[in-house]
Amino acid sequence: MKVNFPSLPWHPRPPEEDIALISSMIGSGIFAVSGGLLGLYTGSGAILLDGFYSLMTLIMSFVSLKVVRLIQQGPSRRYQFGYYGFEPLINTIKGIVVSTVSLFAFTAAIEALLHGGRDLTVGLALAYALLSTLGCFSFAVLMRRYSQRLSSPLLAVEARDWIVDGCVSCAVALAFGFAL
Q1: What is the number of domains present in the chain?
Q2: What's the whole-number average pLDDT of the chain?
């Protein structure tokens, strides 16, 4: 016997959510590449980690974009209530990724302290860290505005990711500032 479910009201997502996630991906990509290259050039594990964190947020933003596009499709035969259940799942996964990278950063910092630190090119690293801090917090404000205007939990988490990335960059900038 086939059961027919009543149709539920479906509210499509605005295209601005895609635009916001794509702009976040572009920003994450820029910070991932520049952080990775500059981290290798200067020998700074902190900048390399900052670039790695940006790479992780780029990947998670890509997954978020895929989820947004699934949600925009509306209900299907397999998912009669739509794909909205993927949204909290992605937000949970993002939280786990942020926690894991933060734990990795903490253990790397402890290891560097126990072994007397590293020799670095401080001036260039400080300039990068300051620009990265400014850029991350700018993206956080942008994502927060999109999140509020569109009532999007995915963009709210995206904004929080940028805040965490900005805090990591700020901590790196402070460390290099003290090293001068």
Answers
A1: 1
A2: 83
Burial 64-79 (b: 16+ CB within 10 A, else e): bbebbebbbeeeeeee
- Read off the CATH number of the domain in which 81 is found: 1.20.1510.10
Domain of residue 145 covers: 15-179
| Angle made by CA atoms 57, 47, 164, in degrees to the nearest 5 | 40
User: Are residues 61 and 158 in contact, defined by beta-carbon separation less than 8 angstroms?
Assistant: yes
pLDDT more than 70, % of the chain: 86
pTM for this one?
0.77
- Unique residue bearing structure tokens 């299907």: 76
Burial of 97 (0-12, 13-18, 19+ CB in 10 A): middle
Q: Is residue 10 part of a domain?
A: no
Neighbouring C-beta atoms of residue 152, cutoff 10 Å: 23
